[in-house]
């Protein structure tokens, strides 16, 4: 008995019914790796947030799921009093990502911490300059 055939309730092979049911399901998306978007936040925050959004769009357009903690952590954490907590959370999220993508030439102190962590863990690092 072949294990890869789809069977009906009486256990007879029924690939046509199986395919008909599959055709009614919503389309499945292909695999997309989660990539950590590493770009500056501190300094000109408004400008840097706009850049980070463009970086995320770039990653999405290149078949990835972008993760940019500096776009959402400031929504509920205070940069002045909870910066270390935000950096800790960012590193925890980076540990779940497939790659670290560094955008731009300017490496901030927070970015340096993220880069060192990725290097220590052997994560692939990609440098991208054309977005910024």
First-residue to last-residue Cα separation: 58 Å
Give the strand tally.
Answer: 4
Low-confidence stretches: none
The average pLDDT score comes to 90
SS class: alpha/beta
Helices, by number, come to 5
Shape: elongated
- Order of neighbouring strands in the sheet with most strands: 2-1-3-4
The major pleated sheet works out as: 4 strands, parallel
* Strand fraction: 5-15%
Q: Give the radius of gyration.
A: 21 Å
What's the helix-strand series? HEHEHHEHE
Helix content: 40-55%
Commentary on this structure:
The N and C termini lie far apart (58 Å). The chain is α/β, with parallel strands linked by helices and 132 residues long. The protein has five helices and four strands; from the N terminus they run αβαβααβαβ. 21% of the residues are buried. A four-stranded parallel beta sheet has the order 2-1-3-4, sandwiched between helices.
């Amino acid at each position: 008995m072949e294990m890869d055939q789809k069977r009906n309730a009486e256990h007879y092979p029924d690939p046509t019914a199986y395919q008909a049911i599959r055709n009614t399901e919503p389309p499945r998306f292909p695999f997309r790796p989660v990539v950590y978007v590493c770009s500056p936040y501190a300094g000109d925050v408004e400008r840097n947030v706009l850049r980070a959004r463009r970086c995320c769009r770039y990653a999405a357009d290149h078949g990835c799921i972008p993760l940019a903690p500096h776009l959402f952590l400031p929504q509920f954490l205070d940069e002045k009093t909870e910066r270390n907590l935000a950096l800790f959370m960012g590193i925890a999220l980076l540990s779940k990502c497939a790659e670290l993508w560094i955008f731009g030439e300017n490496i901030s102190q927070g970015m340096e911490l993220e880069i060192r962590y990725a290097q220590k863990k052997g994560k692939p690092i990609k440098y991208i300059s054309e977005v910024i």
